[in-house]
Amino acid sequence: MSAYTLLVLLVAAERLLELVAARRGARWSFARGGTEFGAGHYPVMVLLHTGLLAGCLAEVHAAGRPFVPALGWPMLGLALAAQALRWWCVGTLGPRWNTRVIVVPGLPLVDRGPYRVLRHPNYLAVVVEGAALPLVHGAWLTALCFSLANAALLAVRLRCENAALATAAPA
Fold first, then answer.
1. What CATH number does residue 45 fall under?
2. Is residue 115 part of a domain?
3. Is 81 contained in some domain?
4. CA nearest to 38, candidates 164, 154, 169
5. For residues 99 and 29, what is the distance between their CA atoms, to the nearest angstrom?
6. I need a labelling partner for 97 at 20 to 30 A (CA). Which of 14, 21, 118, 136 fits?
7. How far is CA 128 from the centre of its chain?
């Protein structure tokens, strides 16, 4: 098994841990009267993110993409930084974090951690990871396709989430 395959499998394992945290967060939110917004686009998001990981492996192995150190090492650094940002978001939101858009009535918006600086820091992590992870091993086609599809999905997701957050209590 190549180091890159191991990296992608580790990211896949991280995503599974993320889903465990997300389910716990959704249960917590629903138990407090949370309302879900935008459930219709959620399966598309799951498919797109699964496709990213599959595309990374498929393109590298099928097209024989080489590891180019001048590109690969900086992209690995960015991919790891994206993971750190994602888990900073998870830690900051605590039980409120999940992969769905669920708003609990009466709870103020979170304004600490990375949310002091950005309204949607987790999406920055997604954008960076979506470009960087494939480029660690030269999978430029996967990086391009994911980034374009993700931009379209994020446009929908951000409209949905901003509308949902507008229903929340002020910070």
1. 1.20.120.1630
2. yes
3. yes
4. 164
5. 12
6. 136
7. 9
Whole-angstrom distance, CA of residue 154 vs CA of residue 49: 12
State the Cα–Cα distance between residues 25 and 110, nearest whole angstrom: 15
In a domain, 17, yes or no: yes
Quick check: pTM over 0.90?
yes
In the chain, how many domains are there? 1
Structural domain boundaries, residue 87: 3-165
pLDDT tens for each residue of 56-100? 999 999 999 999 999 999 999 999 999 999 999 999 999 999 999
Q: Decide if 171 is inside a domain.
A: no
Structure token digits, residue 41: 């686009």
> Which residue, 49, 60, 72, is CA-closest to 123?
49
Written as six digits, the tokens of 165 are: 């957050």
Take residue 21 and report the two structure tokens written for it.
């945290």
